[in-house]
Design goal:
Elements lengths: L3 H52 L2 H11 L6 H11 L2 H12 L4 H26 L11 H13 L1
Helix pairs in contact: 1-2, 1-3, 1-4, 1-5, 1-6, 3-5, 5-6
Pfam families: Niban2
Family: Belongs to the Niban family.
Protein name: NIBAN protein
């Protein structure tokens, strides 16, 4: 009861007026990172399509789809996504001094974890929706892959 009123006043005067601008500032790198995840997934599936169009090999297609499942755990391929979020380091430095925000690395790490989780969900959903072994007509496989990719991206 003693702390409630001064804390409420402090938040109302010193924090609340800045929340919208702070959120906008932070969402830039976060959105950019998640957009990069989306682009990476799109690029990888397009490579699977191109490879299948060249080879028309169902075994190779299955291998490529299985390899896609490793994408979220490939630090090399996910690195461009993670780098987008590292811009938060600079933005959060200002917040650290103004609002006493600590554990900046934790915020960045959690955001990167969410990005990896999103990619895991995307590749898992793709694999569930597209099973090359159930495809009888190889001519329709490319169309099916494209439709599944668009569905996952949606």
């Amino acid at each position: 009861a003693t702390v409630s009123e001064p804390a409420q006043k402090c938040c109302t005067e010193n924090i609340q007026p800045f929340l919208t601008s702070v959120l906008e500032e932070l969402m830039g790198p976060v959105s950019s990172g998640f957009t990069e995840v989306r682009s990476l997934f799109d690029k990888e599936v397009n490579e699977i399509i191109q490879d299948f169009q060249k080879t028309n090999d169902m075994t190779k297609l299955k291998e490529n789809v299985d390899q896609l499942m490793n994408l979220p755990f490939s630090s090399v391929k996910m690195e461009p996504c993670y780098l987008k979020v590292n811009l938060l380091q600079e933005l959060l430095q200002d917040l650290k001094s103004r609002f006493k925000v600590y554990h900046i690395d934790f915020v960045i790490q959690r955001t990167q974890n969410f990005m990896q989780e999103l990619m895991e969900n995307a590749v898992y959903t793709f694999k569930q929706l597209f099973s090359p072994s159930h495809q009888a007509d190889s001519a329709k496989i490319v169309t099916t892959i494209e439709k599944v990719k668009l569905r996952v991206l949606k």
